[in-house]
Every structure is written in C-alpha cells, then in structure tokens.
Hints:
Radius of gyration: 25 Å
Distance between the termini: 55 Å
Low-confidence stretches: 1-30, 631-635
CATH class of the largest domain: Mainly Alpha
Largest sheet: 8 strands, antiparallel
Number of domains: 2
Structural class: alpha+beta
CATH architecture of the largest domain: Alpha/alpha barrel
Amino acid sequence: MAGGQAGPHRSRHPRSAADGSASERAEAATSRFRPAAIEDYALIGDCHTAALIDKTGSIDWLCWPRFDSPACFAALLGRSDNGRWQIAPVETPAHVTRHYWPETMILETVFETGSGSVALIDFMAIDKASVVRIVEGRTGSVEMRFDLSLRFEYGSAVPWVTRLNHGSGIRAIAGPDQVVLQSDVKLHGKAMTTVASFTATPGHRTRFALTHAASHMAQPVPPVADQALDATKDYWTAWSGSCTYHGPYRTDVQRSLLTLKALSYAPTGGIVAAPTTSLPEQPEGARNWDYRFCWLRDATFTLMALMHAGYREEAQAWGAWLRRSVAGTPSQIQTLYGIAGERWMQEWEVPWLAGYRGATPVRVGNAASTQLQLDVYGELIDALYQETAFGLVKPTAGWDLQRALIGHLETVWMQPDESIWEVRGGAQNFTFSKAMVWVALDRVIRGAETFGLPAPLDRWRALRTRVHETVCEAGYNTELGTFVQCFGGDTLDASLLLLPIIGFLPPDDPRIQRTVAAIGRDLMVDGLIRRYRTTETKDGLQGDEGVFLACSFWYVDNLVLQGRQQEARALFDRLLKLTNDVGLLAEEYDPVGKRQLGNFPQAFSHLALINSAMNLGSDAGPAARRSAGGEATAP
C-alpha cells in the first residue's frame, strides 16, 4: 500500500521515514527522480483543482480539494517520495505521443513499445473529486506497471492505508484528507508505495479511479470509470461548442479557452493565475512564486477574452467574483485574492521540498498581496465598466463601490508603488501604474456620462487631466524620445506596450510609436519581448529570467493597432510554435535553452494569446475596443 502495508506511518518527512526498513531508507536516499521539463507536462482539471501529468504517465502535481490546497502529489517540486502516481509500460517506450480529445480536457497518451502499443486516458471527473485513469490496449501485448505514492501536506505526510475490496482498492487517510482508490487489478504494498502489474491487450481496458473527500466524511465512492469518461467528454464538448470565435486560429484559441475554464473555480467564478507554485523563472533560480490565486490585474483581459469568445456566463461569474472579493474598505484593496475571495495570503517556505530541479525556495502563499500596486485600481474599474458596457450587469451594480475606490485613489495616486511586476526592491513611481490611475478615472467618467450615474464629474475630469499631464511629462524621457519605466528614469519596460491598448494615447501618436520601436529594439531577445532588463531594474531579486510571454503578445497587439498586420501575424505564428505538444504555455520562455519557464500553464499567457488572435484581422477586437474605452453594446 502507500505505506507498504495497512497501518500507521508516523514520519513527517518521507525522505527520512523511520518506519521503513534500512534498505527502503537507502533506496529513498539514493533516488534519482528528476521532474520532467515544464513543457513536457499536460493539464487535467475539474474546475475545482487540476493535476499535471508528464510524458511518462506520471502525475507529479495535484492539490486537493482546491487549487490552493496542500498537494498530495508534490514530486514536481521535489522527489518521487514527495508523492506521485505513475502508470507506464515496463519496457521503455520507443515513441510517446499525446493529445487532448477534441474540444475536451481529456488527455490521451500513447506509448509504443517493441511488444505493442497502449493508450493511457487521463481526466478529472466533473463534480466527482476524482482522477480517473484508463489503460486501453491498442496493439500487441504490453506489460504495464502501476506506482502510487500518496503524500499529503506538500509531500510530508505519509497516510494510514487500509485495503478494500479484497486488495483491488485502498483507503488512505492523513489529517483532514482521505482518498479511495478503486482498481481493476490487485494492488500490493512495496517500499512505502502501492504497486501493481498487469498486461494491456487490444480492446481491453484496465481502470483506476482515485477519489478525495474530507476525512471526517463518509468514505467516498469512486465513479464508474467508463460512465465518468462519457459524462466528462459530454461536459467539455458542450462547453467548447459555445465558442463564437471562428477565425483562422480557432484551434489554438479554443485550447486556451479550455485551459482558462480548467483553471476556474466553479463555486465562485474565480480563475487562478496557474495551478502550480514555485516553478522557476530561471533554471535553478530563486524567482519562484505561488500563483494559485486570483489577480485583479487579470480582470479586464479575462473579461474581454470570455466575452469576445461568447462565454457570457463565465464573464458574469468572473465579474461577480471581482465585486465580492474587493468589497469592503477601499484602502484595504489587495492585488490578489484567494479563489473564494480570501485575503490572507501569508507567504512561507517549504523546507522539505528540494524545489523543481533544485530551484529553491519553494513558496506557499504570496506576499505580493500586501503590496501597493496602483495599476490594479485601473484594471478593476475598467473591468467593472466593461461588464456594464457589455450588458452583463445593470449600470448601478457596483457604482457605489467604484465611487468609493476613486475616492481613495484620489488620496494615494501620487504614492510610489511596487508596479505590475510586483518588485521587491522598493516602491517607485512607475509610469504604467500612474497611467492605470488615469484609466480608473477615465472609465468612471465614461460610466457616469454614458449611463447617467451620479458623480462629481468636474472634480474627476480635472484629476484625469492632471494625471495624464503628469504621466506625459514625468514618465516620458525627451532625450530618449520614449516613455520609460519610472518617472525621471531612462530604462524601458514592456508594460508600456499597454499604453495604446488601454487608450492612454492613440497608437499613431509619435511618442507611442517611438516607445514601441524602442521596446522592440532593446527588450527583444530572439524575436521575443522581455519585461525589463533585470540588470537595470531594482526588483530586489537575484538572477535573471526568461522572456515574459504575455509581453510578446502585447507587442503583436501594438503591431495590429499600427496597421502592421503582416508583422503581427509573423510574430503571432512564432508564439504559437512555443506552445507544447498539447497547446499549453507557461509564464515565460527561455530563448537560449528553448524551454518553458515559470508556473504552468499560465492564465495570463493564454489570455494574451486569445486576445491577440481576436485582434488579428479584426477592427473590433479586444484591443480596439479597450483602446477606445469600450462601447455600450456587446461585440
């Protein structure tokens, strides 16, 4: 079983388990497990949580019951004895291919060996808190192995395991968690894991279902695998069928939309930035963050992507999550929240996890939640304005909240902040942050004017003008002829690519055109855009990072707004080639090592992909709409 046999295991850290034999401890100590490359993982999810599966059939990451719960499979950030679940041929495959079933989040991995071929079908059953794995023989006869290592609390807690169904099932309990595994084959305990062996033959299925529940609840009943497969397929295909985008990039857009849906938390409508924590932005680096939360700065991008793709209900749920999460005293607004709107994001380090391929520290929680980031006011109010303009809510919905937010912003807008990039090197007057203050004022003024809402318009208009003049004067370097990262500075920042997209200045303004050209010249690495030069920006962090993928999509959007369609398509096509074999993107990319970097898959990257695809070839795409301030009609 998970502990070698039924019974208790008192070790807090499996790597030094006192319960195992000396040989078992030696085996664990000499383990040579190495997590797969980030781009070699695929995602399955059930709109409550998600799992990452590599090309060897190993689930190396899963948090239950929510995205932000402690992981029960944490090998991704450590070793195999931090928890994983592998089903694979005994013989090393000669060839491995994978794909999602069309318009679904059902993953199929096909292993081809010298003795035959076999498919592994993986998915999470909707509303069942279950991971289902089906092995289906295709050709020949393939010997298979099953290896399950359950470790709760981020790989530290070895569960108490009991046998079920005459050895074809187990129940594992540790603290607040329990899981039940139902198997078509007999299971055995070995060296603190549960193992099995079986043979895959043509047309025959071998099924496994792992189901989670709170330990104080009744023992959960795993779903019938084949029935769950049919139901899950029907759910995802029906959802995909609602997509209204039928442009030339439909397949890529649909995969990104499915990824966003899989990253959504159905009970609240929140969408996590990523399902992972601490995947590094540089190999073996320290720029490792927990992204299993919801960021306000994703608000407008998310709303635009969902609405332009026809997903009105999801857009409404996201808007409702926004309004609930920020409700309260405006001075206490945060940059990010939990998936149900939680505010407590205390950041701490996990000492027993070695980090993804040695990249430490492993962090849980995110201290950026306490930072002052002025841009989130603009993002939030722009999203609230856009949802009204799209007709998702009545104009009065959230109007009192917007007025209160602006009242607070009027008192703090000149303060330095930590910026869109959440720097940890001290607050500064970041140009983009101040431009987003202008957005906040511009959108509430538009809302009041368009919908006849009560507002101190004269005061707001005067401040809007003042903010705009301040940014154009202090955020623009006349010697360089470009906008710069900080007031009075001389360095560039890719966030400045958003200035024409948010409508701060038109895309044909010479200052914008020179800024875009300078970014394309000075921040471009192998045709891709980095956020800023880490050697020039005081971000309080050591080491370097890859190129931030969303920035390259913003560059595409700027090319579109400037009428440079051919260049925009060429760069967009280049970006599409960076997706992995199943269409997923991480936060960043290493143009030298040709590797994906950072948390994976990243909602911000997929949002940017969706919006850029819709901008290409359309005069009414998200960028054009947002740069014009939005309209009071749906697209």
